[in-house]
Amino acid sequence: MSTKTLNILGYIVKAGIILLPLTAFIVSSTMFFPYITGKNFAFRITVEILLALWVVLAIFKREYRPAISPILYAVTITVVVLALATMFGANPYRSFWSNYERMEGLLGHLHLFAYFLVLISVFKGAADWKKMFYSLAATGAAMALYGYLQFYGVLAISQQSGPRVDGTFGNASYMAIFMVFQVFLALFLFFQSEQRWLKALFAALFIFEVPVIFLTATRGAILGLLGGLVLFGLLLVIFNKSRSVKKVSIGVIFGIILLAGAFWLARNTDFVKNNYVLTRFSDLSLQERTVESRFTIWGMSWQGFKEYPLLGYGIENYNLVFNKYYEPKLWRQEPWFDRSHNVFFDWLIAAGALGLLAYLSIFVSVLYVLWKKYVQERGLSGSIYAPAIFTGLFAAYFFHNFFVFDNLISYYLFFTVIGFIHFQGTQEAILEESKQKSRPAEFGPAHMAAAVSVIVAMSGVMYFVNVKPVLASQALLNALRDVSTEGQNVDLILRDFDKVFAYRSFGTGEAREQLSGYANNIVKSEVPMESKIKVLTAAIKEMEDQAKNNPNDARTYLFLSSLYGYGGKTTDTLVTLNKALELSPKKQQIYFLLADVYISLNQNDKAVEMMRIAYNLDQSYDAAALGLAMVEIINDNQDNADALLKKHFGTIVVADPKLLTAYARVGRYDRVRDVWLSLIEKDPSNVQYHISLAATYLKLENRAMSVKELEKAIVLSPEFKKQGEALISEIKAGRNP
Question: Residue 356's pLDDT is what?
């Protein structure tokens, strides 16, 4: 391989690295989880190509091999610990591959490690890093503009973010931490630039980007940003020799403190209450629902850590901890968590104490290299700005992650920044190496064979790691589109899902759950019984396989129990639900489902027992109280039911359709009537409510009121007139239609 060819490869690798920030803008409408999968697959494919080319370069030219630093050691150790945690974890397959929603896992960390290696091996000059930071700055400016366009309604915000701008991330928290990195990078470029026009440009960029972080309404990121800027100012006050800089820094610090104080004093004013971002801060307290749930989840995480303290459960297995140590008070939150929303606990669960120490060692090594360089150069050309800015950035980043978790782009920015600090700390070694005569390119057969092997191996890796999962993701999205447009064509839908399963990718688990959801809907539809059986059979088979592959996941058993229930397999339903209960003994949802099964078996005492347990787990849960009241009614304990309803809802007549079945089952049509009347009071234009009330009056032998309700239904819905008049004629004739 000629020197010219190697130089071309070097340029290609550098160009690829500089263009990588564009990954942040990828949203793939052809794949499942479009905000996540598109970015991750693009990043992985690009990194794999760059890694293969870099390995070829490193084989032939010594200057393309990484310099050694404490940062490289720390990052390497962290990846090794993650690999061990994956091997000995609760679910090695899931730990390695992750899923479409997160796309992290060991595989994700290996790609980040590969990126870091290529970055520090190829970017060994200040000019390279300047281009890199300019590329990042341009990306940040474009993303900030995107955020403003979302705020003003020109571009749409994703549904899950509500009014909070989220850029191309589909998550406001992801957008927030991306912009935090960009703000500090703009600050760094401002102090590094010598030309006035560049300083003005980056100062303007800083001012342009800061408000976007506030528009994300992400409290951890905003507080982290303010704290990071205060820390940056304090470091300048302590270490900078310029009095003017000290004065400006003190002014900024006091400005931030005064701003916080002014907000606190104005927290109850209309100005604050009418602003969504400010309202999120004014509502912030230890009793606020989100904050309270964080503390609860962290407590559960601590219990999980104590069970496996050394290497944890393995990456991506927090769901097992969430199920096992579930706290009943979390009924107010979403039913499934796969992260502890805290950087410490996420690492403790993913890789134990060794993993957390390894992760923290990265920060320690980075700060060590950063400040060591400043101390060494202090009397010469050392500048406080770089160590102060990056220390502030890491403080902001760390604080943000104390309440949420990382994603691909935040990881990418983090590794880019620490790659730069690695470069800063190894400049002398790089300079010394460059002074020596570079080893000429070698063209021996062994070197050529190694280079070819790398290219071939990487092609195979790319197919299994990316191509198959991408095709599976596209096939899954196509299946879901067909479900929404041609859902009753069960043969088409089953063929669609079979295509997903045929790829045998990490998307199979997600596809099985989606097929299960489809089966739950199809059995309630008007399709022929043969079609219902066909779908149920396929879904049960897939979820049974899922349970074999994930025997410790309560979520899987809940999906499977639902399918068994629709298939009339009552015994299997009970066995599956009890298995789920064994894995998650405090989850009220499982007791609700068990109570339903026992009611279907006329084992009402058992149903009451299940609902009493669920209710006593957290008596503030109104749904549990309502469920217990229902089974008490069915079990002929009307006084107990009335006491519960009165306690929780202030009345024994609760406008909830769930009570209707219970009252009708025991023949209490007077209560059925009262519930329908209460429902009609809330929704008087609901035709079906009036028809159902008419039927109830008929059960109560009140034919006049039955006719009156049908007449109301006819007025509300002229289409019902012919049918309604026929029913009225039957009722007036003394017959029960």
Answer: 97
